[in-house]
Write a structure and sequence with these properties.
Layout lengths: L1 E10 L3 H8 L2 H6 L4 E6 L13 E6 L10 E11 L3 E7 L3 E11 L6 E11 L4 H23 L2
Antiparallel strand pairs: 1-7, 2-3, 3-4, 4-5, 5-6, 6-7
InterPro entries: Polyketide_cyclase/dehydratase (IPR019587), START-like_dom_sf (IPR023393)
Organism: Haloquadratum walsbyi J07HQW2
Protein name: Polyketide cyclase / dehydrase and lipid transport
């Protein structure tokens, strides 16, 4: 089973403020509660703006029979600054794809962040966990974004 979630956040800040947060792999990882630790690769896989595009997450899912963390190697696979970033994370437990698109509303006073996530579990219980908790993780992402604008 695959879990898919799409959520749209609206902010009264500039698109560049949203991009500064969402294009940064460390800020994205900080917002996810099940990421225990992470390491951003600052030496390899940088884009033209010299921004890191890959990170390794250590993820701890509270799933019975799984008592360790899973290493998830993430990499930005699409970047179109300052409007779009898509990353893919792969591990023995799951694959995750996250896509973030930034756009202005018709009047230009609201910046929208369109978030789409897909989680494919490879271990029993992973999809069930994310089906119950992915909305909460997106709430965490939205809260972290709003906090960064203060």
């Amino acid at each position: 089973m695959t879990v898919r979630v799409r959520r749209v956040f609206e902010f009264t800040v500039s698109p560049s403020d949203v991009w500064e947060f969402i294009a940064d792999p460390s800020k994205r990882a900080d917002a996810i509660s099940v990421v225990d630790t992470y390491e951003v690769d600052n030496s390899l896989n940088t884009n033209d703006d010299n921004v890191p595009t890959s990170a390794t997450w250590e993820v701890a899912l509270p799933i019975p029979l799984i008592d360790s963390t899973a290493t998830v190697d993430t990499e930005d696979v699409e970047r179109d600054p300052p409007t779009h970033v898509k990353f893919v994370g792969k591990s023995s437990m799951m694959n995750v794809t996250g896509e973030h698109t930034i756009e202005r509303n018709e009047t230009g006073d609201i910046t929208r962040l369109i978030n789409e996530f897909v989680v494919d579990g490879r271990v029993p219980g992973v999809e069930r966990y994310f089906k119950r908790n992915l909305d909460d993780e997106l709430d965490n992402l939205e809260s972290a974004l709003r906090q960064s604008f203060k």
